[in-house]
Design brief:
single chain; alpha/beta; Spore Coat Polysaccharide Biosynthesis Protein SpsA, Chain A; 2 domains; 7-stranded mixed β-sheet; 3-stranded mixed β-sheet; 47% helix; elongated; cell wall biogenesis/degradation; glycosyltransferase
Length: 587
């Protein structure tokens, strides 16, 4: 009996031991397993924090019932979600694969860690995953070290970020109103990108966080791009945005054009100062001291006579100085500067204190022409364009009356620069024509004008007289045979067009009509145009031209002048002159 009781006690103790120890072993095993799994989850979070920087802040954590917390899902947008309502959350675990891997596939960093795929198939054990994450962490550091060695001074990434911001804003506008609240993360990321790029102009100016945000934005935009299966609605909104942008561009261009015209019509402060100071100096002189030298040469028919219509002191100085500096026979040059009586003292004083070497300068006031009473020389108008409002432009058509003793004269606009000797111009055979000019109909050249581009030839009184395809020519450097002009009585022809109401088309089209079939076309090298409005004038043509012309609104003495051409003009002015310095006029 004692043996039987002993066996029973041993059995009871064994059962008691199993009932106590077995749960402890089971609990210990579970704790070890949970420790390993927890370590894996920790390493995954650590990797993501290292890999994406601060993008964990932009992730939405999804809870799926009793399965516990899943991996953070990146805030991106799938095609299916966006087609109905844009969702912050992914419905499947492989959403992370699409946004986290496919979205970054194009970046250098992702190519270095392309083996990373946290949701690929079944998990192969905590230890294997731990080693995988550690290996990819080393790849990240290796990639960072390689990128630091290959830093170049470029702005490629800066431009990419700016493009991403623009594209993100477009998507935010395209998204339906019901999805605006769901796009707050994309909107927030866009603001962060704008702050990150700041005033950066080079890639080296960007911070590491900016580059990380750029990668995250790239992934987000990639998902959004794929979220538009129906492009019709997107196209309609893009067309609306395009129309709005075009309207803004038109408005800005209109405003810019207005401001350019305003600047062209406004006398710079320095030029006004110069005119006032010279006028004061002129009236401080005695009457006999106000006379310019060589008055006996003024109307000598055997000399080279140049007419310049201007109310601008510096412009006249540049024309006269450039012509003299390139002339082979300076003593044969006679300049007739025609201006209003208000500007005559200042221009006269300039040439009194800056005598033109051996050449002769003659200053005339257009207000003193006795013959002008028999002509309606000028029509007052309210046009905003200078060519319609300057009386000096219309006096070109009265050269035979202004210079009755001369047979030939060269007209130079005050916005030209002479670069070569012009004496050969006087030997050109005019073949019975009245005006010598450079044509403006050569294909591919600036400017390209035909007569029908400026004159309405549908009027039967005009259209039957002219060929719509007739070539036009340029004012600014023209040789006139005044004898032929008088013989054809072209001033009367001009007056007829004025009485027909054509004065409002401008002096240049009126010249095309008046001298129609009376024009001798000159070689283009004599006169190159476009320096006052075009940035595409060929540099070689400028260098080889006898005369260059700043036609257009952007005159070389204005602040709006084209910088690339301005030096051709300023080199003929002495900015060390005391009057220019006192008026703060600089090259």
């Amino acid at each position: 009996m004692s043996k039987i009781r002993l066996c029973q006690r041993i059995l009871l103790l064994s059962l008691f031991f199993l009932s106590v120890v077995a749960p402890l072993v089971f609990v210990s095993h579970r704790l070890n397993l949970l420790t390993l799994l927890g370590r894996r989850e920790f390493l995954e979070d650590l990797y993501r924090a290292t890999y994406r920087g601060d993008t964990l802040k932009l992730n939405a954590v999804e809870q799926e019932g009793a399965d516990g917390l899943e991996e953070p899902n990146q805030v991106v947008y799938t095609e299916k979600d966006f087609a109905s309502t844009i969702s912050y959350y992914s419905e499947k675990n492989n959403d992370f694969k699409e946004s986290g891997i496919a979205g970054y596939r194009t970046t250098t960093l992702e190519r270095n860690v392309s083996g990373f795929n946290p949701d690929k198939g079944q998990r192969q054990g905590a230890q294997q995953n731990e080693l995988s994450f550690m290996a990819q962490g080393r790849n990240i550091h290796d990639s960072q070290r390689m990128s630091e060695k290959n830093i170049q001074v470029t702005n490629k990434k800066v431009q990419e970020i700016k493009d991403q911001v623009i594209l993100a804003k477009a998507y935010l506008k395209i998204a339906p109103p019901s999805s605006n609240l769901r796009l707050r993360d994309l909107e927030q990321l866009t603001r962060e990108m704008e702050l990150a790029v700041g005033e950066a102009t080079q890639d080296s100016d960007l911070s590491t966080s900016a580059l990380q945000k750029m990668r995250h934005m790239e992934a987000s935009l990639s998902k959004v791009y794929r979220a538009f299966p129906d492009c019709s609605a997107v196209g309609a909104k893009l067309h609306t945005m395009l129309r709005q942008a075009e309207e803004q561009v038109r408005s800005q261009r209109h405003q810019a054009t207005y401001l350019v015209h305003l600047a062209a019509r406004t006398a710079p402060k320095g030029l006004h100062c110069l005119s006032m100071r010279l006028t004061a100096e002129y009236f401080a002189l005695r009457p006999e001291e106000r006379k310019l030298p060589n008055e006996n040469k003024i109307y000598h028919p055997d000399l080279y006579h140049y007419a310049v219509f201007s109310d601008n002191v510096l412009a006249c100085a540049a024309v006269v100085n450039s012509t003299i500096s390139t002339a082979k026979e300076q003593e044969k040059l006679v300049f007739h500067v025609l201006t209003k009586s208000l500007n005559l003292p200042a221009i006269s004083m300039w040439f009194l204190i800056n005598p033109p070497a051996k050449a002769t300068v003659h200053i005339l006031s257009i207000d003193n022409f006795e013959w002008s009473s028999k002509y309606n020389t000028y029509q007052e108008n309210n046009s905003s364009y200078p060519r319609f409002t300057s009386e000096l432009n219309y006096l070109h058509f009265y050269l035979p009356d202004i210079f009755p003793a001369l047979n030939k004269i060269v007209l130079l606009d005050h916005d030209v620069v002479v670069q070569q000797d012009l004496s050969e111009l006087w030997n050109i055979n005019m073949k019975g024509n009245v005006i010598g000019a450079v044509g403006t109909c050569q294909e591919g050249k600036i400017p390209f004008y035909r007569i029908d581009m400026f004159i309405n030839l549908s009027d039967p009184l005009i259209g039957k007289r002219f060929d719509a395809n007739a070539c036009t020519w340029a004012f600014g450097m023209n040789l006139f045979d005044l004898q032929q002009w008088r013989r054809h009585n072209l001033t009367a022809v001009y007056q007829n067009y004025v009485q027909m109401g054509l004065w409002n088309i401008g002096s240049l089209p009126l010249g095309w009509l008046t001298f129609y079939n009376k024009t001798e076309l000159l070689d283009r090298q004599w006169h190159v145009l476009g320096l006052g409005y075009s940035s595409d004038v060929d540099r070689n043509e400028i260098e080889q031209a006898s005369v260059i012309h700043y036609d257009g609104l952007r005159k070389p003495w204005l602040d709006i002048a084209m910088g690339r051409y301005k030096s051709y003009w300023t080199k003929f002015l002495n900015f060390d002159n005391i009057f220019l310095q006192q008026c703060n006029l600089q090259a």
